[in-house]
Amino acid sequence: MSSVAVIDYGMGNLHSIAKALQHAAPDVSVTVTADALAILQADRVVFPGVGAIRDCMHALKQAGLDEVIQTVAKTKPLLGICLGMQALLTDSAENGHNLCLNIFSGHVVRFPEDLHDHEGTRLKIPHMGWNQVRQNRHPLWQGIPQDSRFYFVHSYYAQPDDASIVAATTDYPEPFACALAQDNVFAVQFHPEKSQAVGLQLLNNFLHWDV
User: Is 191 known to be catalytic?
Assistant: First the structure.
């Protein structure tokens, strides 16, 4: 039986993610763990997260999981979700400035405070709720219609140095990268575990992704 490890570093709705993964692919063994060996032995790894990047990076380093994630990123399919996606970039402007894992070259920046849509209506920060995702070609979009809506909750977003790794964009109001893909690593800003059928399809695609 194929296996997936959900990294438990004390941040993220792990029960919700684990339940969604199990629902998406009942044939896959799902383990929520902070154990480095268990993570390295799994066939695939999910790196979730909510909250502040400073706390995230501190927790990862305290547990030695920063090096584990960097190893996983070179060896097997890895899915970053929300804060887990942001932590994969070079650094983040949140809490001043924080160095991240540098798996994707690029930066995490905050939405501007005075944000308005094209009709002049003020947009709230955080960007919260359902929004359309414009896909670029990748196996993890299989079976998901173009411009499907996914659920977002975030005030910061990724600005990768290399536009070719952008796997999808969302408008708020201008396009920003909401999914990144490089080799065996795929990461999303939205929450697939909260995105109903299309989110479950994405998780199923990841759990059967042969890089």
Answer: yes
